[in-house]
Structures are given as structure tokens and as C-alpha cells.
Design a protein that fits this description.
The chain is α/β, with parallel strands linked by helices. It is built from 6 helices and 10 strands. The strands form 3 sheets. The chain has a 5-stranded mixed beta sheet with strand order 8-7-6-9-10, covered by helices on one side. The protein has a 3-stranded antiparallel beta sheet with strand order 2-4-3. The chain is globular. The protein starts with a helix and ends in a 28-residue tail after the last strand. Residues 1-7 have low confidence and may be disordered.
Length: 218
């Protein structure tokens, strides 16, 4: 991180910064149960604390859901030395925010994947309600199949009716629509609707397949 902020022309500037933390350590808490200051307790059900951590949360679905996560305090101090105004957001929040906006376009059984080379987020909706969300590591494309099949079995999805939608896949991933259709009946490779515009010099951000570069949370 320090190397990046030292050489990137934009990050050299002291501008308001939103930092997306992609970590498998997170917990989803219903908004009605969430209390500020209890983030460490909520997260203790998902993973043991590893060293000094900074705990944070972000609201989703009109505050009906809170994403709780953490990262090392040392990283927070390094970022605070560079930027005077910081906001921390879990990397999955843009993806989930988008799905909640699109939920009424979903069918009765839907699995949605945000693929990012070494890991992916999997969300499963049943009757337009979120039933499952998690992050998985992937070493080979077969890992993708394994976790989808596990999710479908856990939720009793019918493979003849469930729709599987993928974000972030391209030819470089070695995963094609044709290959996926050998295993699933209803497959979509789609791109999120963008609600952000970029000036010259920053449009290449969209080619990085970063969900947060396309969809700005409310």
C-alpha cells in the first residue's frame, strides 16, 4: 500500500479517500439488531481476532443490513498518514448494494457471482430475498463449480430453474459461457450497470473489473 500511494499521481494528493477492504473476515447483521460499538462482538462469531484490529461497518439495503469487518490497525495508521479524510468499506458492499437495487429483476432461484481471479463473492437469492452470501478462494475454475453446487444443495435449488449470473468473467479467466453451460441450464455473463462516470485518464479503471469502480454505494 505504501508503495502504491508513493507513485500513483492521484494517490499522492491529499483527497478524500474511500478504501475498499477485500477480506474473508466479515459478518452480516440485521439492521434492527445492530448497535454501534459492538462490531468486535459481532465479528467474533465469524472469526477469531488476529492482532490489533480496526473494526468498521457499512449499511446496506436502506439500513436493513450491516456488513461488519476489520483489518490491521497498522494499515489504518499508514493510510491516515497519507490521507486526512478516510472512509473504510468492505469490498463486497458495492456488489451487495447493486444486487439489492436489482433484486426485483431476479427470478425465484438466483445465484450471482462476482469473480476476481483469486477469489469470488457468491450471493444466493430465493424469491428476491438474500439467503446466502460468502467469499471463497479459487485456485482452479473447478473450484467455482464446487461452491455453486454446494450452495444450490444447501438451498434446495432446482438446477432446471435456478439462474446463475456471473460478473467479472472474461476470456483471460479461461471460463467461457459454453463451459459453464455444460453444468448449468441458465447462465448469464453480465456487466453491472454503471452509476459512475470517469474523465480522461481514469476510464481504464472499468477494464479492471472492479465492481466498486462501476457501482457507487448510496
Amino acid at each position: 500500500m505504501e508503495k502504491i500511494t508513493a507513485v500513483d499521481p492521484l494517490l499522492k494528493q491529499d483527497v478524500p479517500a474511500r478504501v475498499f477492504i477485500h477480506t474473508p473476515v466479515f459478518s452480516l447483521v440485521p439492521g434492527l439488531l445492530f448497535q454501534n460499538g459492538q462490531e468486535q462482538q459481532y465479528l467474533s462469531f465469524a472469526a477469531e481476532s488476529n492482532g490489533e484490529q480496526h473494526y468498521f461497518s457499512c449499511a446496506l439495503d436502506s439500513n436493513n443490513l450491516q456488513m461488519i469487518s476489520s483489518f490491521p490497525r497498522g494499515l489504518k495508521k499508514s493510510l491516515e498518514a497519507r490521507f486526512s479524510e478516510l472512509t473504510f468499506v468492505h469490498g463486497a458492499c458495492s456488489f451487495l448494494s447493486y444486487l439489492f437495487k436489482e433484486r426485483f429483476n431476479l427470478i425465484g432461484q438466483e445465484i450471482l457471482i462476482h469473480y476476481m481471479d483469486s477469489h469470488f463473492y457468491l450471493a444466493a437469492f430465493k424469491d428476491q430475498e438474500l439467503n446466502l452470501f460468502n467469499m471463497f478462494e479459487v485456485e482452479a475454475k473447478e473450484d467455482l463449480l464446487k461452491y455453486i453446487f454446494i450452495a444450490m444443495e444447501e438451498l434446495a435449488f432446482d438446477k432446471n430453474h435456478a439462474r446463475i449470473s456471473f460478473f467479472g468473467l472474461d476470456e483471460a479467466n479461461g471460463i467461457s459461457k459454453e463451459w459453464l453451460e455444460d453444468y448449468f441450464y441458465h447462465v448469464r455473463l453480465i456487466k453491472p450497470h454503471a452509476n459512475q462516470n470517469y474523465g480522461n485518464g481514469f476510464k481504464n479503471l472499468k477494464s479492471e473489473h472492479l465492481f466498486e469502480a462501476r457501482w457507487q454505494m448510496d
